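ugh ok fine here u go
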Amino acid sequence: MSIEIILILCYLAILVFTMVRILLDTATSSKSLAYVLLVLTVPVLGIIFYFSFGVNYRHRSYHLEANSAHIEVTKSYKERISDATKQLHTHSEIPRHYRSLVSFHHQTMDAFLSENSFQLLINGEDKFPNVLKTLFGARRFIHMEYYAWENDVRGNQIKEVLIQKAKEGLKIRILYDDYASMGIRKNIVKELQEAGVEIYPKIKLKLRQFANRLNHRDHRKVIIVDGEFGFIGGINISDRYDNTIDTKLYWRDTHLKFTGPLVHDLQRHFLASWNAAQPNKLLFSDALIASGGSSESLPFSGLSQIVPGGPYYSFSNIMLSYLKIFNLARKTLYITNPYFIPSSSILNALKQAAMSGVDVRLLLPDTSDSWLVGAASRFYFEELLDAGVRIFLYTKGFVHAKTVVADSSVSVIGTANMDIRSFDLNFEIMSVVYGDCLGKKMEAVFFEDLKLSEEIDANFWKQQPIYRKLTYATARLVSAFL
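structure:
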């Protein structure tokens, strides 16, 4: 048998093996078909691409270890934190038809329902002064987990505060995304380590694992101070989010500060990430629970839960939570998101809500920082417009907020985009707040943003040139690989 025949047979065996992996491991039929076509039409390179970016590692190696860490931390959490969910889920702040949402989060994610106080932070102009003030006031410990941290004005201001607090003897633990924050490895990370701060990448990138681990990103933006204050939302540590600093583009984003038992739940998910990222394991203890004594009063109050997402969870928690809220909405559903490439379930839920008489409004960027994502999003517009969904494009700058407010009574503020990456690949986290106290404020902010937006006319959209529609369709096809 000649060497050529042997090579062909080996290639065919690898091809068959790859196709079996695609069919068994890829979650959606459209994505499976896209990968099958790729490996069949692009010899060798298609197979390399699939094994670099397409393999689902939800139950493999790192994620098995991370899942074990999550289970261990949750056990210690339940031993120390009382669960009032059963007593609170019938509270008058929660409309009757949303009580199943509370139960869903509690049963599938161990998300405890608790009473908390909140402050809505609009853009970096609100967030960074508030964060710096809270960090300055820290007395015991600071925990942070961030997707993007940049070596700029705000990045260095936060670094200096952390160094000062470390010198005062506080325990400071930080996780960061090794790819999005690669610019701080040789400066901010090094300086923090020299000051005694424990700082690690969530998933350390290595050359042999680069492609696969790059596919799973730590997209969370979380701060916990003394077990008393928590921050969560879409704003990274970067000057671009602060419009008092001239970065040539206006950024619109939303963050949430809160105090109360919800901070402990946020802490639980940080500890699971921490234990999976470095060898020094840390479980819930009295030292990590709020000691009380804070006199700061936050303007809003409400019942709330934390919804985590990531590859080591058994289900796509973020997508399922979005889906549940969309299906339960009765009157209004207002969504702001920068990256909108919906799964078929999310798409159908939005259409069904609009066709059932719900006022569904979707606020997206007019100009995206990712041309591909922006074009792919537009593929879905005609279908949504036909169903009665109203679509608005933010024109003042780039809207990066990830928020939902339904029926003035359920508010979502978090890190998750509305795409398959946030649903299945990234580590995400979001807060769900019940009650119209924060809900009405969220609606007011949404309508202020609409004043800086342009609504898409359904008839005009249908009359677009065929080349634009083809561009959107092509971008959507390519997005199936993302």
